[in-house]
Structure formats: structure tokens, C-alpha cells
Specification:
With about 160 residues, this protein is α/β, with parallel strands linked by helices. The protein is built from six helices and five strands; from the N terminus they run E-H-E-H-E-H-E-H-E-H-H. A five-stranded parallel beta sheet has the order 3-2-1-4-5, with helices on both faces. The structure holds adenosine-5'-diphosphate.
Amino acid sequence: MRRAIYPGSFDPMTSGHVNIIERALEISDHLIVAVARNISKTAMFSVDERMEMIEEHFGDNPKLTVASFEGLLVDFAADNDCQAVIRGLRAIADFEYEYQMANMNRKLNDTIDTVFLMADPSNFYVSSRLVKEVAILGGDLHDVVPPTVRERLLDRVKSR
Ligand code: ADP
């Protein structure tokens, strides 16, 4: 696979996202992690903060670019010369939505295909939404987010 794009909210990036990014890097020449500027979702972190957290964790990796986008994913993917969209599949609950979206995207642009990576058993239960709830309720965040994200979550919860 040449160039791939991994879109999502990443509010914030979890260990599940990290696992998918690492595996996507193994099977692509270049990966764009693309943070969606989605106005319909109430976010804890700004798009810039979410991008910073991804960059902080992965450091300088010439195979990885962190970007943000709004509008149609397939347009952004085509503008950036990507042939594949990467998505992670956790549970049956993810499947229906992902199946619909993959087919709609293919209808919009049939030169771009979606590649699904199955969630690693060690973090298939991890979601950004649950991680934020655990942070707000003072639970242990080790293993579910990278250390840099954990620091930011604790700061954000303290300042609320
Ligand atoms: P979105 O709002 O687009 O669903 P998310 O940041 O929640 O954005 O998720 C982005 C992608 O990462 C989705 O394909 C989602 O299924 C996948 N993903 C999220 N958490 C995990 C996890 N723990 N393991 C594997 N894939 C995951």
C-alpha cells in the first residue's frame, strides 16, 4: 500500500488508536493521521491539541504526517494522493456504521478503498469516550492512553 489515511476524532488518541497507527505504518509507505474538524461532536480537546498529542507521542517519523480536515474525507484523501482509508474495528457495534461509511465513500470515489484492521484484544474495549469518563471520575488511565495524553487529560479534568 502506498499512501494511506487514518481519519478520526482522536479526542483524545487512545492506546487503541496508537496500535492501529503502528500497524498501519507497517503496511503503508506513508500514513496521514487526519483529525476531523467535526462541529457536531462536543470535544474535550481542540483539533490543534489533538494533533499535538499525536505528534508528541510519535515524534519525528518521516513515514507519518498529522493533519486535520473538514468536508468529505474522500476529497481530502484524493487531494493528498491516498489510495486507502484505514479504520479500526472493535466490536460488532462498529461494524454497521463502518460498513455503511466504507460503501458510501467508495460510491463517492471508487479509486479509494477502506482497509479495516481488527482491534488488538488488549485494547478492544478502549474508546475516547470511555477514557474521558474514566478521567473525569478519577480512574486509572495507565495502559488505555499514552503517558503524554494521560498528563493532558489529568490537567484538563483538574481545570474544569
Ligand atoms: P470517529 O469519530 O471517526 O469514530 P474515533 O477517534 O472514535 O473517530 O475512531 C477513529 C477510528 O479508530 C475508528 O475506525 C475506530 O473504530 C477506531 N478505533 C477507536 N478505538 C479503537 C480501538 N481501541 N481499537 C481499534 N480501533 C479503534
